Amino acid sequence: MLRICSLFVLILAGAAQADVRGAARVIDGDTLDVAGITVRIEGIDAPELDQRCEGPGEDWACGAWSRDHMVALIAGREVICAGDLQDRYDRLVARCRAGQGDLGAEMVRGGAALAYRRYSHAYIRDERAAHSTGRGIWQHGGRYVTRPAEYRARQRADRQAETPAQTPPRVDCAIKGNISSSGQIYHLPGQRDYERTRIDTTRGEQWFCTEEQAQAAGWRPAQR
């Protein structure tokens, strides 16, 4: 009986692990589309696609370079990803490989991404190696590195400063029905992404008065 129960637990554990494999389209330095599934590489943070990095002379397009580095690592091979988590954008968070190489480790070792310490310590040693050898974004000893998370925070702050606060058509109809790559999602006042979510009714986005109204219209709740 014990052996049967142990086997059952192993089966459940295996079922929780999502394995995705197939041809990959590189979205940016830490995000792939693998067989139609959007995958966020676990434990790394690459420069945003439009991010430029400073230097002693002119700045350079480090975000586009990071994406191209990932393309070169995959080199048209099948990509295999394994993970069991989803982030707030409904992307699978996973470790991926093409051939025998761990893509996260290779991106960090090449200076094309940073170890994402907020979520994982797996690639800190690889980052230190890239820093010590001046690879990629570390080519000037790290003096000009803006971490991608800092860059995103500045971009959000700039957008909020440029865009006036949106007010709902009625004070009791403050639920935001947003349409994104993740589908139709509604945000409640006080939630993490509520303030930065903009509603554009010309795109079919809506304001709702109740969660029941939003759900009946086909929207689903944002992760809290």
Describe this structure in words.
- This protein has helices at 2-16, 62-74, 103-109, 124-133, 148-162, 211-216; strands spanning 18-22, 24-28, 31-34, 37-41, 44-45, 79-86, 92-98, 101-102, 114-115, 175-180, 183-187, 206-208, 220-221.
- With 224 residues, the protein is an alpha+beta fold.
- It folds into two domains: 16-152, OB fold (Dihydrolipoamide Acetyltransferase, E2P), CATH 2.40.50.90; 162-221, no CATH class.
- Strands 1, 2, 3, 4, 6, 7 and 8 form a seven-stranded mixed β-sheet that branches. The protein has a four-stranded mixed β-sheet with strand order 12-10-11-13.
- β6 (79-86) and β7 (92-98) form a beta hairpin.
- The longest helix has 15 residues, at 2-16.
- The radius of gyration is 21 Å and the shape is globular.
